[in-house]
Amino acid sequence: MAPALAMGHDGDPTTHTGDMMYPFEDGQTFPRNHWYIAACSHEVGRALFARTILDEQLVLYRKEDGTAVALDGTCPHRNLPLAQGELEGDAVRCRYHGFRFEADGRCTEIPSQPTVPVSFTTRAYPVVERWQWIWVWMGDPAQADPALLPDMDFAGLTAPGWRADSNGVVHLKARFSLLIDNLMDLSHIAYLHVRTIGRMDRATVPAELTEADGRVHVVRCAPNQPAEGFHRFLHPTCDGPVDLTLRSDFLGPGLISAGGPYSVMSETGAPVGRLNFVHGLTPETLHTTHYFPAVSRDFRLDDEGLSQALLAQERAVLAEDIPALEQVELVVQRQGNTRRELSVLADAGAMRVRRRLIEMMKAEAL
Predict the structure, then answer these.
(1) DSSP code of 123?
(2) Which of 186, 235, 244, 289 has a Cα at 20 to 30 A from 84?
(3) What are residue 255's DSSP bridge partners?
């Protein structure tokens, strides 16, 4: 294994002290001109549903035709949360003074006066429902293009020949960048997850970093492995040996696919199967995150028992990740601006994603 090398905030060999909004530069918080998961599809129906995203309060609901809607969650008149109001057809009636807002944000009734100023509107967010998630565009609505959604085919969520299962939503009391750090360096599996899925030798497998089209890929390959343990559980008829691949794929600020194992027969290169643990991540506030985990695979598609076992395993792994990340968050809140941070070669993917996020935020500030 290569010796540890300290790397700074920009990936250069050095040391680093935190910034105002660790790990970003002063004044930076989140990239906004991107799609983020607002909710699982089953969470939103014909009842007003409140959720905070990127420090903005939203209210979500479905119109009578089933289309999802996201509005600014605070009435612009006197700031009562609209989720406390009522749905009337496709519109929201504020419970405070009765102002009525349509699904496009227009105010169409003010009970205390006969007319409504044309300028009296609230913000309507662009929404796309894809797979089992409702996505919302938090930035400039003129730039909201569904073609800019993260590649869910790549993650196996919407690709033909794959099965994908949602694991709901988890509230993480830690900033989204800490979750990104965790997912882009899977060497932690060997230690943090030693009771569930960890194997010590996984930490010594070298990682290859590549980047293309705004994505960052970290790939670890272990050739000529025996078909045993978890691989045998997934593929009971495979005798091996197999080449195993573990990978982290940053597909955008709101979606990371942590694939593994991907396996092929060592002698022939014939594919055995691919498994992804997919992670939707949406900043709630500066210090909390909505976390949408899922599992996808391209084998044993009709095996419901396998799906439930993989979802249970993912929950067990999250039960180890989440307390650790929340402890890190507490330390960062106390010391993130002053504490000396060291990074090593295994952090290259996470450091590159940090730089990518900073580039996004700088571009939005122009």
Answers:
(1) -
(2) 289
(3) 252, 280
- Domain residues for 113? 35-147
Q: Give the domain-ending residue among 147, 169, 198.
A: 147
CATH number of the structural domain spanning residue 224: 3.90.380.10
Query: Which amino acid is located at 150 in the chain?
Result: P
Are residues 183 and 65 part of one domain? Answer: no
Q: What tokens does 109 get?
A: 């009734």
First to last CA, the chain: 43
Distance of CA 67 to the CA centre of its chain: 23
Residue 11, in any domain of the structure? no
pTM for this predicted structure: 0.91
**Closest to 234 in 3D by CA, of 295, 164, 306, 167:** 306
User: Are 200 and 314 within one domain?
Assistant: yes
- The rounded distance, in Å, linking the Cα atoms of 50 and 59 is 5
Cβ neighbours of 328 (radius 10 Å) = 16
Residue 15 domain-assigned (yes or no): no
Q: What are 170-223's pLDDT values in tens digits? A: 999 999 999 999 999 988 887 777 777 756 566 678 899 999 988 999 999 999
**pLDDT per residue as tens digits for the range 212-227:** 988 999 999 999 999 8
Distance separating alpha carbons of residues 63 and 229, to the nearest angstrom: 48
